[in-house]
Amino acid sequence: MSEQTIPMFPLNLVLFPGQILPLHIFEDRYRLMVKEIIDKDREFGVVLIERGSEVGGGDTRKNIGTLAQIIDYEKSNDGRWFLLTQGTKRIEATRWIEDLPYPRAEVSLFTEEQSISIDSEEWLATVTHMRRVLAILAELGDDVAPISTNISEDPFLGLFEMSSILPLTPLDAQQLLEIDSFSKRHSLLKKFLETLEETANSRLLQ
């Protein structure tokens, strides 16, 4: 994708490449957005709202986000849309355009690493750590992903998959999305796993 103008959907969450995201569209401006893109490429950008609200505009938005593809949809009789979307590639909003009638921005694809190298045992250790953390949180009664959740053997996608299912704060998730180095992103995820495990173990002792 060369730089182009696309519709944008600021949300109070982070969408990662490969992540499935269901959306319920009820606000008039986004109903119009969906109507206009549904017969085109069915793509729009998702970025995190740093401050403000999803409704009504007037928010402060992050510039690094993810391109979302509509993979299924349904329209209700009252005009609401129910979308099933999937994150595809990271994007950077280089210029925001006035929200008339809905948010748009000039975006370019985020530059990705050409090759990724990680020791298989180190990668397995990270996946195992994630499953251990999910198991502890499930024991505590938290609503978390099953420990059997499949993780891609491709570390690039697998790291984003783990990031999407862990109970991270939006700003922590945004950090993982924005890092342009796999090794740095992997190191940060491991730190988040350690923090989650320490907090969960403390709760078990209470």
- Please identify which CATH superfamily of the largest domain we are dealing with: LON domain-like
Helix percent reads 25-40%
Spatial shape: globular
Strand content: 25-35%
Please count the helical segments.
Answer: 5
Major pleated sheet: 5 strands, mixed, barrel
Arrangement of strands in the largest sheet:
1-3-5-6-7
Low-confidence stretches: none
Radius of gyration: 18 Å
CATH topology of the largest domain: Archaeosine Trna-guanine Transglycosylase, Chain: A, domain 4
Structural domain tally: 2
Which sequence of SSEs, written as H and E, runs from N to C? EEHEEEEEHHHH
CATH class type of the largest domain: Mainly Beta
What CATH architecture label of the largest domain applies? Roll
Structural class: alpha+beta
pLDDT averaged over residues = 92
Number of strands: 7
CA-CA gap between termini:
52 Å
